[in-house]
Structure formats: structure tokens, C-alpha cells
# Entry
Amino acid sequence: MKTLSANGLTLGYGDSIIIDELDITIPKGEITVLIGANGCGKSTLLRSMARLLKPKNGDVVLDGEDIAKMATKEVAKKLSILPQSPVSPEGLTVYELVKQGRNPHRKLLKKWSGKDEEAVNHALESTNMLELKDRFVDSLSGGQRQRAWIAMTLAQETDTILLDEPTTYLDMTHQIDVLDLLFDLNEREGRTIVMVLHDLNLACRYAHHIAAIKGKKVFAQGKPEEIITCNLVQDVFQMKCDVTFDPMFGTPMCIPHGKGRCIFANRPNPASANIG
# Structure
């Protein structure tokens, strides 16, 4: 089964090494979430997998081919990336933004086709943005703006979508809105989705596969229910916690230790809920 992988990948900026001889394989048709402490290299890894950052060593393989040897348009037909907090040109409508997702499929001087229009409309419908297509992007709310950018990546019609912290700066409602949208895309269309998330509980709820980055390598990876334990959270984030079950989904739920107001007369023993 063809997929996206990195082999012996070393990344950095100047003399600073961020990722060192890292190996990872992204499961095809699933949602993979990259987790780890700030500065551990999650975003750097994502950029390299989209060929936005040249490796110092190693390679990224997409559908059996070294991504560095592929033509830019060929990569863009198979893989799309949504960077953290993207900024659109002033005065651009949602429709105009989403149309840009068709650029990899269009040749110089080729007219806008019915297939292009169909792809844009499908992307707008899938993200519930059709009614807002004539609105200026910079006039939208944070959640609407993020859906517009996701619509642009969908119009690109790639099997694999990479997203760098797609819920950053969004309130709770819009975080769930965006993650539900990505979950539906995976369920309905089988898109392979790779994203960086900071909220460990949301990562556990939405991911089929989690990869924890620490020490410039993949520290642990697997299904959330198999790898998310108190020990892993302590090792990766240097944070004491208890891990129990999400009462709605049955997925791991991390309860961090720390100071705070306790309404119980006697603080209960948190170890009683520990599953890791």
C-alpha cells in the first residue's frame, strides 16, 4: 500500500539540528496526529514532508517516489499542506481563495474548466462555505476563515492533507467544528490526514494514529489507546498527570496535575482513575 514516509530524516536550520535520523510511516486513509512539546520539531517535520524544507539527510517518500525528485506540480496533485495561521491577500473572496487550490491541475493559458468549477463547488459544500463564497476572507470569523483555507486544500483534490495546528487561536466551538470537518472528510472520502495538535485529549479523540516527537526522533507511535499513558506524558511533556477514559468516546483522557481550586473537602486519590 503506497503511503507517505520519512527515512533517516535529518532536518535543521543552519547548524541547528531539529530532527535527527527520524523514521516514520503515515498510515494511508487514517488520521495521524503529531504531538510533542513546543520546539520539538513537529512543524519542521510537517514542512519537510510537504517538500517545503530540504532535508540535510534522509528522504521523504510519497507513493513510492522520493519527493525531492518529483516535479512540484506532481507533488501538489498528491499532497496539500495548510500551514499555521495562513494569511490571504487583502480583498480576496472565499471563492477566489478556493479557486487557487486548482492551480496544480491547470496548465499555462488553459481555460477554467467544468471540472475545475465542480471541484471548487464540492470543496465549498464539504466545508459548509457555499453560502459564504462571495464574502471577503478577512471579514470572516476565525472558524469560518479556517474552513475557507481547508476548502482550498480540498479543491486541490489530493489524497493526503497536512495541517499545522489547524485549531490554533480558535475557541472551543470552532475547534470542534474544524476537527469534525476533517474527521468527516476522512470517513467519507478516505483522505489521509496528518496534523499537529497541542490538545492531547482532542488528539486522542480524533486520531487513529499518534506519533509523539521527542529527542529529535519519534519517541512512540501507535493507536492512542495503546500509547497514551502517564509515563509517556511525563517523558514527552515533563508533566505529571492521570490518564482515564473519555466518558463519551472511551478514548484516553489526560488529567494534568498542578495547582488549582479543589471543591472537594478531601482531595481524592487520582491514582484510582489511572489507566497508564
About this structure: Residues 142 and 170 are 6 Å apart (CA to CA). The two ends are 33 Å apart (CA to CA). The chain has nine helices and twelve strands.
